[in-house]
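Field reference: sequence -> structure
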Amino acid sequence: MLLLELALRSFVCTRRPTWASVDPGSSHEARGLPLHVGVNDDPELGENTHRADDLTELYSETRILLPGTQVFLGFLVTIPFTSQFAQLSPELRLVYLTTFFSALLAATLFIAPAAYHRFARPIQHKHAFKLLANALVLAGLLPLTASVVLVTYLITSVVAPPAARIASAAIGVLLLALWWVLPVLRVHETYLGRPRHRERRS
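Structure field:
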């Protein structure tokens, strides 16, 4: 037991956090903050933490969008090499080309923030980079929406031609509602009648 106690004490000493050996008032004095202000109360640290969380959320969302777009693009790449492609009419071939390049543009825009971050690092102004990356992701949703609607029309035209326009219009309305209208209206804030952030404030 004595050896176990000594080992535990040694582990605690070696794992002591670095902030424990730093004067708590030194960083505050250097930045002109009063000594009673804690780390969580520091507005600059809180803002930086909030921006880092925003970037983490943006990267997570991109990881969801990009693999699906890549799989979708891979499916489109294989279509011209099938025996059925030669039987498509010139109109459907034009629809296919528009679908393929729309999906390709969407994948390019989704990859752009990661490529920009890699070449421009270190990023000093993270807020400006977040705005740029957010604009690129939103821009990528436009061609992705168009490509999903067009591929619906393409496949339905081959399988069930009379339902092609109806199916593509239905998918277009669904995507417009879920991907664009609901986020713009911020429906999550009125879901079940009361926003969560108001409940926390009260």
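Note: The two ends are 51 Å apart (CA to CA).
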